[in-house]
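dumping these here so i dont lose them again. two proteins, back to back, each one seq then structure tokens. dont judge the mess
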Amino acid sequence: MAAPADTLGLLAEYALGTLSPEERLEVEAALAKEPALRAALAELEASMAMVTVSQGAPAHVWQQLEAAVSGGRRFSHLVPALALHFDISEPRARALAEALDDRSAWQPGPAPGLLLMPVEAGPKWAGFMSVVVRLEPGAQLPMHTHAAREQVLVLEGGYRDDQTGREFWRGEVEVREAGTSHSFTAVPGVACLCASVVKLAEDA
């Protein structure tokens, strides 16, 4: 395991999806333990998303960088986890990641600043509801009780559980069992995107 300072130096390549599988696992292990690294990654990704061709660097360098961080490509290192999460193939997971920036694919959610994208999950999740949730920075999902089990994979940004103060960031998974209650708020920065699988109450 690299020291946090060493891992910090790998964050840009992690965000671009250019690390080796071994390096990616190393960075993700460090992210799971270091809130400061997760915050640095969120800030870096927000900055990279706004990069435009500018002075200094050759045009082809900027073109490669923009291609790597635009659209669904910024989720490239999360495609295997997304495929596993929804029990779908990696090509389908990649297509889903590409669709996340298509505003027409989203539906209004149950609270301000909240949008939903239904997902057709694989046979493992038959009888479950699967969806990607988009929560704008600072928006809150009000207090609610889980009538059934929920599993969430954070794809971008992060959110804070308002009751415990615990934060969940890109690449992390949260599992909420039936009967638990909480509200949560998207942290500042980029919008929080979460892949969610919920067991329907009638099957609980």
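---- next one ----
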Amino acid sequence: MSDADIDALCKLADNCLQLGQAKQAKELFDKAITANIDCAEAHEGLASIAAMNSDYATAIAHYVKLTLLKPMEARYFTNLGAIYNRTGEYQKAVDVLRKAIQRDKRSSEAYYNLGISQRKLKRWQMAISAYREAARLNPKLAEAYQNLGNVYLETANLPMAIINFKKALEIRPDLEKARVALEKAESATNTAKEAVNPFGRLVNSQSHQSSSNATMLRELTDAERYDDRHQVKHIADEIERLSKGCLEFLKLKLEPAIIELQRTMAEGNNAQIALVDVADQYHVAANQWAELRKAVRRKVLELRAHEEIVNSPEVIL
């Protein structure tokens, strides 16, 4: 069978797979591999079908073959790591995902899957670093923030858990896992506060002060201090970026729209038709300006909320 015939088989198999005809697709990919054992397209297709059917051993075999056929393709190492995560072989996942990152340092998927592996191995700080890098590379990856929140929840850092669960829901309001986890973290926070400050209980002020300090104060670890500073810097950078955008929009869009509206209104009856269009342009610019200001305000409020959490008596910087 010629290379052209094998390519045609793979394309037909891909079409079947897109139509949900997995059985037919597998038969075609198998024919392609029979004709050429090193057909990467067929191995990739069969790996995908096996993963969809939870046949992880077969998927692993095909992805391992792909890493040998195309050792510089990061996605094969990333997918192999994701399958190892599903089979609970977390150290193997770490090993191949690091290879994926070596080949593509901007792969948010590789960092995200690495975060899963490190979290399962209880390497908390490494998991945090991996999830953060995934979120930095893909700011819309809500699951990265959700899982980052899970790590903080598992390590009893409730304030940071809450911040990250809220960020995940800001990106994807329908992310149910993040919503449930946020409720859990907030409930645990409220329970802790009630335990150290019971309503209606009268105690000696000095004994209350000493016991409260002993119960509530918890010094942050170096890793948590780093997390705090990183979070503040990230929010501050966002505020700076959004503020610059506001100023630029004001100069280039809103101010010219105001000037044009004033000029057209000054012309009176001679510009009645033009006035409608100019007024519409002004209203569009004004609405966009209002949205930009809201975005800045949201980030400022996020920074204030973070400061309130960090400055609470529950932690010591």
